[in-house]
Amino acid sequence: MKDKTWSESLLFATFLTLAGGLQDGYSYALRGKVFVNALTGNVVLMAFNLAEGNFPAMLRYFIQIASFALGVYVSGRIAFSKKRRVGLHFKQRILATEIAILVVVGFLSKELDSVANSMMAFSCGMQVNTFRKFADINAATTMCVGNVRTIMHNLAGYHHTKGAVHKETSRTVLFIVGIFFVGALIGGLCFSLMGLKTIWLSAIFLAVSFIILHMDPAIRT
């Protein structure tokens, strides 16, 4: 499979995924052991806390879920409008918003972990809704569950049909999962050095993605 545009290239997906992996590791390690990208886990924990009558904790998880959902909705509204503003394509504006959010998160103290996690969940919702296809393959840059399903489904397809498309799809998505791991690893190596400001590395990865996006003729026109 050949990359059609910069915005659907594996290079672009690589930096988005590095940002996603680092962000998830950051929220867990430094912001109260919360996976801002793991919506299913938050739903389960919200239900558990409701069953135990722990309403403050239940509300905290609900806010994370609502923030993610709001990010999806806002990015959807921006995408459906398809209007260029300040000379930027809607995908560029969404990336710029994500970058700004993560820069602000790096300034927030531990006492504002809930706010920081909600902001990151919102950013994640925007990213997962906007960037979903790379090298003709549907893949997520902020989580791994669906990607692992895609890997194994296409691996089974390759073993059954020997079709090259299944093999290439499985290999490509495995690469994306590996990059997610690397993003989390980079975060883990930097936590002790940069502390809460480690999230700025994720913002840098997104900034590189923004530059790559700007190189796409389809985005600039």
Automatic annotation (TrEMBL):
TM region positions: 61-80, 172-191, 198-215
Domain of life: Bacteria
Keyword annotations from UniProtKB, A to Z: Membrane, Transmembrane, Transmembrane helix
Protein name: YoaK family protein
Organism name: Aedoeadaptatus acetigenes
